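Re: the request from the purification team.
They wanted to know what the chain is likely to look like in 3D before they choose a buffer screen. I agreed to run a prediction and write the result into the notebook, where they can find it.
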Amino acid sequence: MNPNPASDVISFLLQPGWTTAVYWLLAFASVAIAAYAWRTLPAQRSLLHIGNWAMRFLIGSMWWQQSLWKLPPYYTDHPEAPFGKTGLAYWMTLMGQHAAIPLQADFVNRIILPHFYLFAPIVYSLEVLTAVSLMLGFGVRLFGLIGALQILNLWLGLYSAPGEWPWTYFFLLLLMVVFALLRYGRSLGVDALVAAQPAIGLGRVRTLLTEAT
C-alpha cells in the first residue's frame, strides 16, 4: 500500500525515540498554552485566533519533523553512509552544485562543507528553535524572520536541483514572513500572554520581549 497522509501522521506520532516524546510534550504544552490564553483573555476567543494557532502549530510540526533526518552528532539518519551521501551534508552538497547565485555556491563549497561540523549544529539548532517557537507561540516575530531566512537560503541554494520545485520553498518563505508580520504568536500563544501583561517594572526586558513577539 502506498503511503498516505493518515498513515504518515500515525507513523510520525508513534515512532519510538526521544524525539517523539519531546514532540508530544511540545504538543501538549501548545494546547495548554492555547487553552489558558482562551480562558484568561476574552479577546482571544475567536475562530480567527484558533485558525492562526492551528496553522502555526502545523508548520511548527513540519519544522520539527524536518529536523529528524539531521540529528546530531552526525546530522544524518544514516550515519553508516559515506559523508555527503545522506542527511544535511547531502543537501549542502546539492546547494554547492545548484545554487542560483555563484557566491552562495562558493561559500558552501569553500567554507561550509570543509567545516561541516562547525556549521551543522547551528543549522540544526535554528530549525529546532523555529519549530519550538511556532508550536508554543513564543518569539514568533523573531523566529518567523529567522525561519524565512533559512527558507530563502534553501530556495536559492536548491533552485536548479533535480527534482526540486522552487515554488515549494518560496511558498514556505512567504508563509514564514506572514507569521512574523502578523504576529501569529499573539493568537493563543505565549506571545499573546506576554503582550497582555501590564508593565511591572521590567523596563527594557519587557520591551525587548514585546518587540520579539
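For the purification team: Residues 5-212 form one domain.
Please add any questions underneath this entry.
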